[in-house]
Write a structure and sequence with these properties.
Pathway: Amino-acid biosynthesis; L-lysine biosynthesis via DAP pathway; L-lysine from DL-2,6-diaminopimelate: step 1/1. One of its GO terms (biological process) is lysine biosynthetic process via diaminopimelate. Its cofactor is pyridoxal 5'-phosphate. Homodimer. About 30% of the residues lie in helices and about 25% in strands. It is α/β, with parallel strands linked by helices and about 425 residues long. The chain folds into two domains: about 160 residues, Beta Barrel (Lyase, Ornithine Decarboxylase, Chain A, domain 1), CATH 2.40.37; about 230 residues, Alanine racemase (TIM Barrel, Alpha-Beta Barrel), CATH 3.20.20. Strands 1, 2, 11, 12, 13, 14, 15, 16, 17 and 18 form a ten-stranded mixed β-sheet that branches. Strands 3-4-5-6-7-8-9-10 form an eight-stranded parallel barrel, surrounded by six helices. The protein starts with a strand and ends with a helix. The N terminus is likely disordered. It binds ligand LLP. The site of ligand LLP has 22 residues, from helix 10 and helix 11.
Length: about 425
C-alpha cells in the first residue's frame, strides 16, 4: 500500500485505502462498510428469544437509499419521522405495513399522506389524536406516550422525561380514551423513545417497564414500540467498552415474556435503533490543507467543517480520529491540536485539544463512527457542497452511493 496507517484500524476500507478513495471520489467523503452494517442489524435481530419481535431501523440516523435497502434485506422494518422519510423508505422497497410514521406536531395533510399509503401513524398529543380522528374515523392508530423516563448523551437528545415536548403524559389517559371512542379508533400500538445513546441497558429496561404500565391500561394492543437509543462507544481508542447487548437482551426477554403472560396475548415488541445500526459502519474522510500556530495553539485546517459533520459543534460530541498518509514516513512525535474546518465561524472545531501523532499538510483525517447523524445533518452552509457517499461492499470494493453536490444543486430552487 502507498499510505501510512498511523494507528490501528480494521480492514474497513476493503481493497482500497483512504488516500485512493479521496483521489477517486474527492474530499471530504463519507465511506460506509456494508459488512459492519449487516453485522449490527443481525446483532439486534438476535437480541432476544421472545418470538414476536421486530427491529425498526430509525432511518433518521442515515437515510441513504442503499443503506435502507441493506437494512430491509436484513429483515428490519423502518420508522419514519416525516413524509420525506416515508417516500424514501417506499422507494427502498419497504412495504407500508413495515413502516411506522412517528409524527410530531404535524398537519392533517401530513397524516393523510401516511393514511393514503396504508402506513400506521403514531400521534404525539391529545390534540393530534383529535385531528387524526377527524380525518380517519374508525382507523388504526398508535399513540406515543412519555412515561417520565429519559436518557441520552446530551440534554438536546433526551426525549423522554418530565421536561420534554414528546409524547402524551399518562395523566391524560382518560381524555385519550374519550377521543378513541368518539372516533371509534382502533388503538393498535403505543410507543415511546426515552432518548438517544444509553450505554447502560438498565435505563432502557426501566423505560420499558414504565411504558408497559401504560400499555396495561389498554386492551387489544397489537404492539408496543420501545424506541431506540442503543449507544455505541465513541471513545474506542481510549478503550471504552461496548453496550452489553446480551445482558440487555436477557433482561428484555424476561420483561416481555412476563408481560405477555399478564396481558394474555403474544403482543409484538418493537425496538427502534438508528445510531447502533449506522454509526460504526460510517467513516468520514477529509484532507489537511493548512497547519498553523495561533497564540500557542496548533490548528490543523481541514475541509471537515460543521457543514459536513455537525455533532461535535452541536453536542460537543467526541469522534475518534486517525491519520492516513500517502508517504510511508511515520510521525515521530505526538502533539495536542485543534482540528478545524473551513467554515467562517470560530466554533467550527471537529476535535478540540486532541492528542494525535504529528499531522502534516496533505494528510488524510479519518473521523470514526460518523455513519449516524453525519450526512443527514450536513448542510450547504457557506454554499459548501455536501460530500459524496461511497459504500465498501461485502467484496471489499468501493461503490458510489450518492454523488457530491454540484454548484448547479446550489441554484436549482431559485426562481
Ligand atoms: N425513535 C425516535 C422516536 C427518535 O426520535 C429517535 C432519535 C430514534 C428512535 C433513534 O435513536 P437512536 O437509536 O439513533 O439513538 N442527532 C443526535 C441524535 C438525535 C436522535 C433523535 N431521535 C446525535 O447526533 O447524537
Amino acid at each position: 500500500t502507498t499510505y501510512n496507517k498511523v494507528s490501528d484500524e480494521t480492514n474497513f476500507f476493503g481493497n482500497t485505502t483512504p488516500v485512493e478513495l479521496i483521489k477517486e471520489y474527492g474530499s471530504p467523503l463519507y465511506v460506509y462498510n456494508e459488512n459492519v452494517m449487516r453485522e449490527r442489524c443481525r446483532e439486534l435481530k438476535n437480541l432476544i428469544t421472545y418470538p414476536n419481535f421486530s427491529v425498526n431501523y430509525s432511518v433518521k440516523a442515515n437515510g441513504n437509499l442503499t443503506l435502507l435497502q441493506i437494512a430491509r434485506e436484513e429483515g428490519l422494518n423502518a420508522d419514519a419521522m416525516s413524509p420525506g422519510e416515508i417516500f424514501v423508505e417506499l422507494k427502498a422497497g419497504f412495504k407500508p405495513e413495515q413502516i411506522l410514521y412517528i409524527s410530531n406536531n404535524v398537519s392533517k395533510e401530513e397524516m393523510q399522506f401516511a393514511i393514503d399509503r396504508d402506513i400506521l401513524v403514531s400521534v404525539d398529543s391529545v390534540s393530534q389524536l383529535e385531528s387524526y380522528g377527524q380525518i380517519n374515523e374508525g382507523g388504526r392508530v398508535c399513540i406515543r406516550f412519555n412515561s417520565g423516563v429519559g436518557a441520552g448523551h446530551h440534554e438536546k437528545v433526551i426525549t423522554g422525561g418530565k421536561k420534554t415536548k414528546f409524547g402524551v403524559d399518562p395523566n391524560f389517559i382518560p381524555e385519550v380514551k374519550e377521543i378513541i371512542s368518539k372516533y371509534k379508533l382502533n388503538l393498535v400500538g403505543i410507543n415511546q423513545h426515552i432518548g438517544s445513546l444509553f450505554m447502560e441497558g438498565d435505563k432502557y429496561v426501566e423505560g420499558v417497564k414504565s411504558v408497559l404500565d401504560i400499555a396495561e391500561k389498554f386492551d387489544n394492543l397489537e404492539f408496543v414500540d420501545l424506541g431506540g437509543g442503543f449507544g455505541i462507544p465513541y471513545q474506542k481508542l481510549a478503550g471504552q467498552k461496548r453496550l452489553d447487548l446480551q445482558d440487555l437482551g436477557k433482561k428484555l426477554d424476561k420483561v416481555f415474556f412476563d408481560f405477555a403472560d399478564k396481558y394474555g396475548k403474544q403482543i409484538t415488541f418493537k425496538v427502534e435503533p438508528g445510531r447502533y445500526i449506522a454509526a460504526e459502519c460510517g467513516n468520514l474522510l477529509g484532507t489537511v490543507y493548512s497547519i498553523k500556530n495561533n497564540y500557542g495553539m496548533k490548528y490543523v485546517g481541514t475541509d471537515l467543517g460543521f457543514n459536513v459533520l455537525k455533532r461535535p459543534v452541536m453536542y460537543d460530541s467526541h469522534h475518534d480520529i486517525e491519520i492516513f498518509r500517502e508517504s510511508n514516513v511515520p510521525s515521530t512525535k505526538s502533539e495536542t491540536v485543534n482540528i478545524v474546518g473551513n467554515i467562517c465561524e470560530s466554533g467550527d472545531i471537529i476535535a478540540k485539544q486532541r492528542e494525535l501523532p504529528e499531522i502534516f499538510e496533505g494528510d488524510i483525517i479519518n473521523v470514526l463512527d460518523a455513519g449516524a447523524y453525519g450526512y443527514c445533518m450536513a448542510s450547504n452552509y457557506n454554499n459548501r457542497l455536501r460530500p459524496a457517499e461511497v459504500l465498501i461492499t461485502s467484496e471489499g470494493n468501493a461503490k458510489l452511493i450518492r454523488r457530491r453536490d454540484t454548484f448547479e444543486d446550489l441554484v436549482r430552487n431559485f426562481e
